[in-house]
Fold each of these.
Amino acid sequence: MNLLDRLFSREIERRTGAHAITIYIESENARKRSRSRGKKVIQSANKKPRKNATKVTTKKLQGSFLQRIDTRFPWLKLFAVCLIGVIVVLDLCDLTISHTSNELNRIRIAPMAKHVRVTERVLNGKKLVALTFDDGPSELTTPRLLDTLKEKDTPATFFMLGSMTRTYPDIAKRIEKEGHIAASHTMYHQNLIRISANAARDDINEAKATYSNTLGHDPTLVRPPYGNYNDNIRNAINLPIILWSVDTLDWKSKDVDAIVAATKNQIHDGAIVLMHDIYPTTVDAVPIIIDDLRQDGYEFVTISELANIRGASLTPGTVYYNFRP
Ligand code: NI
């Protein structure tokens, strides 16, 4: 065997870990060399070597089936790693699909946004609740709230003001990026039923344009300020209108204990909880509320997930207060 042959046989020995391997390496050149030296050619037991082709025959290979496969197809490992990589990348790209299985009642977070974390929570047998935060995003409080929600793997729905979204576009983008829903709370928080129909329409449309410019798409849900609407407003909004069934009165009390107590007193399966992410006391109360409600058998979902699980089709112009089972 020449140097190349020896290296080749050593490599195969190394890969298989077998000591008793007999390797016959035959090539046209080697055979010629051997003949010229008058030595007997090492040949594989039964087969004649093909011309112009290096033939490697392993005989009495020892080791497991996997080791033998590895020896014969050394590229297989690399191929498997690449295949797994491709599957992972495809899976990460497929975040826009909201998937609900009736059998396991599992849901994939982040049905709205691309580039978000993918987490699967088992919701089987859990009571569901949607936390909602109005009037932000605020530079002073919203990032801390987002940190808490991330730490506790809790999705929420943010009804953002267009004016605040324009001021803090990066926070608005972060909200979506982290798997929450960024929805509209109109442009300037006007009481839409107290202004002219045209002014209300302008406000709604300006908010829509601001979201579109910031996030790259129109909002899909709207909460009119103070929960006030009439038929004209419903028509002008032309999106599902989301109100609430649990009012924490966080804007009024600005007290952590009071916010936690108000939530626990009114909570129910399918609840929509109204809070505001512009108050530090609200941000302080949120981790306590999350822990308490989880202990009571609740799990947290976005408004879209809640509607989806409860079989409610979110219809434009329709007002929703909760999604009870
Ligand atoms: Ni508001």
Amino acid sequence: MSQQTVFITRLVPQKGLDLILGEPTIQAEIWPGELPPPREILLQKVQGIDGLYCLLTEKIDDELLDAAGSQLKVVSQMAVGVDNIDMAACTRRHIPVGNTPGVLTEATADLTLALLLGTARQLVRAAEAVKAGRWRTWEPMGYTGPDVYGSTVGIIGLGRIGLAVARRLQGFNVRLLYYNRRPNPAAEEVGATWVDLDTLLAESDFVSLHFPSTPDTKHFINAERLRKMKPTAALINTARGDVVDQIALIEALREGIIAYAGLDVTTPEPLPADNPLLSLPNATVLPHIGSASITAREKMATMAAENLLAGLRGERLPNCVNPSVYG
Ligand code: GLV
């Protein structure tokens, strides 16, 4: 293989970097900052590269692909979601795009459970009070929230991650409902019942979102659908921020249309400190940490490196989001 250049947009777990840096024919530049490269720098850094290893913080669009040049052979993203990438633009240029499905399923399901339980039981608010010296006594009615045990949980998007969440919830004796466009035969294994969306929204104590962000799913949870939920219900989102109309959600939380939200994802990310969501006592917001287990992040980094290397060799990516580039 002749000499090739790649740009890696952040320091990622070493196991992934080693795979790339161990290739004598590859000259890799790694953006060393804790924050993503600013757009204008990214546009410079990609000029003339053969491979791009990116994160969900980078917008990959026509402008960037033009800046990179026609020699670009592969875009490999260390994430399963690829809504930051203009897939049509990559496909038009016959550039395969890699992602990292599967390896973050369990970590994301763990975090979903943590967020669901934490939202119900006011974990963050309670811990903040202790830290701030506001633990004055044992309060008979302080920090009370709904039971997860024995509740009804509605999963929208019973795919890989939705199923992993459902499996965990079996231990909580919940009634599990799910909504997918088509029933998933694997639902039987977790005792989940396929219902229409209105039924799921009306009957669930917790509604958890597990579907990708696409133009079709933008603001899937909107004011009208929030109104169909129980006033005591919680919305849990570990998918993508823009599948929820956040303005409508803030209003719903303020007006008691629903009771709680647990969000690992928001619009925008990062969420500015003065966003109204952050002053609502009934919203728990996390900084997009669904896949942040050490093992999951190592596997994601490795998988993205394998996709990158395959693309540079002109081989089919082990995990390709736009396989139509192979004809
Ligand atoms: C994280 O959100 C991912 O898509 O991998």
